[in-house]
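Late entry, evening session. Most of the bench is empty. Finally got around to the prediction I had been postponing all week. Sequence below, unchanged from the version circulated by S.P.
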Amino acid sequence: MARVLPRITSPIRRRCLLMVGLALFFVSGCSQQQGNDIVSQFREGRPQEFLQTSVDRMATLAMRDNLDSLYVLMSKLYLRNPEELKKSGFLNARTAGKQVRMAIEQQQPLPTLGGKKDLAALRYAMSPEFLGDRVGAFIYAIGSMLVTAHGNRLEFYMTDAINPTFVSNAARNIEIATWILSQRQTKQGEPLLFSNEISEEGSNLSFAVEFGKIVARLDLLTQMLDERYRRIGLNYAQSLLFLNFLPVQ
């Protein structure tokens, strides 16, 4: 004779059914949400992103954000140093900044720097001998230095190689440039460029903060690049240890 199972009491039965229903609801909802997120990401992405690893994509975004930070700093410097804008020959900071931005991103020389780029341009722009628009020259010099440190590219793909040492050196150069900006003075004892300010009226450290963001992005990218190349070495060592052949296609 078949054994009759005890009937679940009504409150317990309802509670069990409710828990099962909630579980199914959340599972189906998460799956649907993940599916929608994937579709949305494919729709919003560009075709060339399929040729980028996660580190390549990160390097591309970091370069974009670092240049944007430089352009923010340029606008701030023009506001604090209106005499430099007059030297540029342009009527407003927006037009002057556009010329500097084009020179950086198209890797063209800035006429006032006599064809100098990256570190040579930076030394000249922050020297007492330079008589041109020091704001535009200073930002251009740092921007071209960043592009040079990244292999003269603004976007990165699987076929590109970025030297982490050069990226780390660029971060240190930014720190030196920040110090020069705050300390170097004219013969009259005034800063070559007015930037950060700490006085009885108040403090303005927005320049140091923005430069700090650039340094942080560069240092993070350096760590990511070091880890990627370290993993390549580890994978090779593991293949030798376990006698695994390396893929050739």
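Two things to note before I forget:
The helical segments are 10-44, 54-80, 82-88, 93-105, 118-125, 134-149, 164-183, 206-241.
Residues 1-9, 22-27, 234-238, 242-249 have pLDDT under 50 and may be disordered.
Will write this up properly tomorrow.
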